[in-house]
Each structure stands twice: as structure tokens, then as C-alpha cells.
Design a protein that fits this description.
By secondary structure, this protein is α/β, with parallel strands linked by helices. It contains 11 helices and 7 strands. The strands form 2 sheets. The protein has a 5-stranded parallel β-sheet. It has a two-stranded antiparallel sheet with strand order 6-7. Strand 1, helix 6 and strand 2 form a beta-alpha-beta unit.
Length: 289
């Protein structure tokens, strides 16, 4: 009979040694292959978005083909797809919102193979620019690191992108949301860096995510209610109104006293006569009190 061959009999000692080099330790097989110079391509398998997310966020349904076609049109269709491109995105990311991650998704899928770098502004830089974040820098970096689209976090990202930074990080392209340059809320210094990137032909566009449902507005106590809106009920026992538990009799008695005082005419005090004895008070003797 012909003896069956198992895996150990097929692989030689050298083959097993090579396999151990790749899979040894806690490192994954993908990271070991990346060290060997193989480009890391997005393998797909993205979970489908909720139907409600498709209705709320207009960019959530963009396919990789649609994103890449949009980028190629902006670059004139002269970009090779045979290599891994290093794409950079920066921001505060405090907190990380659906609009942020949808931009990161477009940046990651801009080419068939992308190494996505995400720059997170330090706390002191944000405070200096008047944009103090609500989330500490370490927390923001950690949240960004766990986003499925991110390959590398740049914790010391400059507020204004400059050419020296692009060379040091080997950045091929910077992903910029469309309409950023005309957004009045965008910082002018950051726009200067984006203008430099465009002049260097290192900018690729990402579609800005528009939400069908606006963000809830915070209640402004100094703003008068518009037509159709109702004022919130005052808290019990505050200066805005008496507590609801007060007896109705006490309230009616108070109103009756006020009404009687308003209806009673004011009477002038009588003129003193020369035969009237002077009145004495704590301040001395005088005519009247």
C-alpha cells in the first residue's frame, strides 16, 4: 500500500524553520509579511451599515471603486496603482465622530493599497489655537489607533502641514475634505498648510459627509422661544415660580389683599392742631412720627 503523507513528512526542517521565523511570538502573520516588503492591501469584509445610517450619512454607501474613481479623476488618472501610497489625515478627533471615521474610510480606500497615517493634534497646540479638546490627547490617540482604517498614528501632528513634515513622514498625499477652503469655521492657519499641499500636487479629495438629521442644539436660557416651541417648565421651588404644592387658599388671600390695597384711595394724614400734645419717640420730641 502507498503510505499517506502528512504535513510533517512533506515539510523539511528548513521549511519549518522558515515558518517559525514568520509566526514566532505574538506578532501576526500579516505584520511579518509587511516586514518582508509586501504591500498591505485592504482585504474587504467590511460590515454592512445600518439602513438608518445610509439615510443619515450620505457617504456611508460609497464603494471602494467609487472612491478610487473620484480620486483618479481629481489627479487626472495618472497615478499608478502598483504600489502602496502613504496617505495622511490630521485632526483633533475629540471626540471621534462618524464624520471623522467616514473621512478616514475614504482616505484608506483612495487607492487599492494605502498606508494611512492619522495625525492627532496635542493638547497644548489645540489650546493655543483656541480649540481646547474635551478629550485628553492620550485618549484621542488611543481611540484613533483602534479605528479599523488607521495604520499609523502621528501623535505630534503639526497644526499647519509643512513640506519638512511631509518629507520626514514620507507622505505621498494628504486627504482633505471637499469644501474645507470655503468653510468659515475652519482655522486659517490650517488652510495655509492645505494650500501648500495643493500647490505641491499632494492633495486628494474626500467627500464631506452631510448628515440628514442635524445635531441636537443645546438649550439657551436667554433665547426666547419661537413660534411652535414651548418653554421648558420651571423647576419646583425656584425663583421662576412658586411651588405647585402651595395651598390655593393662601394664594387667593394674597391676591385679595393686593386688590384691596389697590382699590382703597390714599388718605393724607390730618394737619396737627396747636392744642395737640407733641409726640415722643426714640429720636426725641417732635410733631408726629
Amino acid at each position: 500500500m502507498r503510505r499517506s503523507l502528512d504535513a510533517l513528512s512533506v515539510l523539511s526542517t528548513d521549511d519549518l524553520a522558515d515558518y517559525d521565523v514568520i509566526s514566532d511570538g505574538p506578532r501576526s502573520l500579516e505584520s511579518s509579511i509587511a516586514d518582508l516588503g509586501q504591500p498591505s492591501r485592504f482585504a474587504g469584509g467590511e460590515p454592512a451599515p445600518l439602513p438608518s445610517a445610509r439615510e443619515k450619512f450620505d457617504t456611508v454607501g460609497l464603494s471602494a471603486e467609487e472612491i478610487q474613481a473620484h480620486v483618479q479623476r481629481s489627479l487626472g488618472g495618472q497615478v499608478s496603482e502598483a504600489r502602496t501610497w502613504r496617505v495622511y489625515v490630521d485632526g483633533i478627533f475629540g471626540p471621534l465622530t462618524p464624520r471623522d471615521v467616514l473621512q478616514l474610510r475614504q482616505a484608506k480606500l483612495a487607492f487599492p493599497s494605502v498606508h494611512l497615517l492619522v495625525g492627532v493634534f496635542p493638547d497644548e497646540v489645540c489650546v493655543e489655537r483656541g480649540a481646547a479638546p474635551a478629550v485628553p490627547h492620550t485618549d484621542r490617540c488611543e481611540v484613533v489607533r483602534h479605528c479599523r482604517w488607521v495604520d499609523e498614528v502621528v501623535p505630534d501632528a503639526p497644526w499647519t502641514v509643512h513640506e519638512r513634515f511631509l518629507r520626514a513622514r514620507h507622505v505621498d498625499y494628504v486627504a482633505i475634505d471637499e469644501g474645507t477652503s470655503i468653510d468659515p469655521d475652519y482655522d486659517r492657519e490650517r488652510l495655509k498648510g492645505y494650500d501648500l499641499v495643493k500647490s505641491l500636487r499632494k492633495a486628494i479629495p474626500t467627500r464631506r459627509t452631510n448628515m440628514a438629521t442635524p445635531l441636537p442644539k443645546h438649550h439657551d436660557p436667554f433665547k426666547k422661544a419661537e413660534k411652535g416651541e414651548t418653554e421648558p417648565a420651571p423647576a419646583k421651588g425656584t425663583v421662576n415660580g412658586p411651588p405647585a404644592e402651595l395651598p390655593q387658599e393662601a394664594e387667593q388671600g394674597t391676591r385679595a389683599d393686593i386688590q384691596e390695597a389697590l382699590e382703597t384711595p390714599f388718605e393724607e394724614p390730618p394737619e396737627p392742631t396747636p392744642f395737640e400734645e407733641p409726640k415722643v419717640d426714640e429720636f426725641g420730641t417732635g410733631q408726629g412720627v
